[in-house]
């Protein structure tokens, strides 16, 4: 029993030293810079597994890919082919050259940055709104507006399985071990299915209102969910219990991202700031000021750099024209 208390104290001290270290880091590196990416708003940003590239998906029906060079993003290519908005995209978990886009045009497309070509177009049954790639790289899951999730073989590009759900499916994700599949839903629940046989293991009443987003931390210890009640909750993966809540946002939580070490959690909403919390204590480490609602956030897989995109308006000349910029936070103040 006493050693438990000592463990807790050690953990608290480690957490506080990390807290101080990261506060010091952001005091010197709190510059945000924006990079033109699209002709309309950006819905989704994601880093390749090696952190060398950032991809963005937009309402303008395209994806863009940037190369990270020291303290700036340099646009490498724009990927055209979708006939409707690109709502979400993700990279292959271990191959830094492949990414996949989900679109309202009832297809998903797999792209290769080496050839800059579309490797495959897979037709699906409905307008696609969310997508994820399994940790083993073998399967892509895509969810549509009719709450159907299709599991697609990443090599043959053929559908392996299809599930129609009786609830509003918001975001989908495998756990890091690839043996469970998680869905957040409109009733505030997290539904957990076994994988690959897709049998319901458990349904957790996570939030009193719509459960919007879900992310797993890279270490596999926690996952986080964000909901319409403006709360972010942190869950223990093994125990499936809520460990703590973060409640600094006032609006529905749209997007979440864990830092590469699993120690920071960024969350954002229509609030005009992105909250950066220390995972182990729930303390606010930093906040990134924004001038408008944030659609998407993504921590770099190796560095404390946060990519994000907001509901930009070009205010200067024509307030109706949307901008499509990608932003990067965590740059040196003197850069």
Automatic annotation (TrEMBL):
GO terms for molecular function: RNA binding. Keywords: Acetylation, mRNA processing, mRNA splicing, mRNA transport, Nucleus, Repeat, RNA-binding, Transport, WD repeat. It is found in: Nucleus speckle. It comes from the Eukaryota. Its main location: nucleus. WD repeats lie at residues 35-76, 79-121, 204-238. InterPro entries: Tex1/THOC3, WD40/YVTN_repeat-like_dom_sf, WD40_PAC1, WD40_repeat_dom_sf, WD40_rpt. GO terms for cellular component: nuclear speck; THO complex part of transcription export complex. Pfam families: Beta-prop_THOC3 (PF25174). GO terms for biological process: mRNA export from nucleus; mRNA processing; RNA splicing. Component of the THO subcomplex, which is composed of THOC1, THOC2, THOC3, THOC5, THOC6 and THOC7. The THO subcomplex interacts with DDX39B to form the THO-DDX39B complex which multimerizes into a 28-subunit tetrameric assembly. Component of the transcription/export (TREX) complex at least composed of ALYREF/THOC4, DDX39B, SARNP/CIP29, CHTOP and the THO subcomplex; in the complex interacts with THOC2. TREX seems to have a dynamic structure involving ATP-dependent remodeling. Belongs to the THOC3 family. Component of the THO subcomplex of the TREX complex which is thought to couple mRNA transcription, processing and nuclear export, and which specifically associates with spliced mRNA and not with unspliced pre-mRNA. Required for efficient export of polyadenylated RNA and spliced mRNA. The THOC1-THOC2-THOC3 core complex alone is sufficient to bind export factor NXF1-NXT1 and promote ATPase activity of DDX39B. This is THO complex subunit 3. The lineage of its organism: Eukaryota, Metazoa, Chordata, Craniata, Vertebrata.
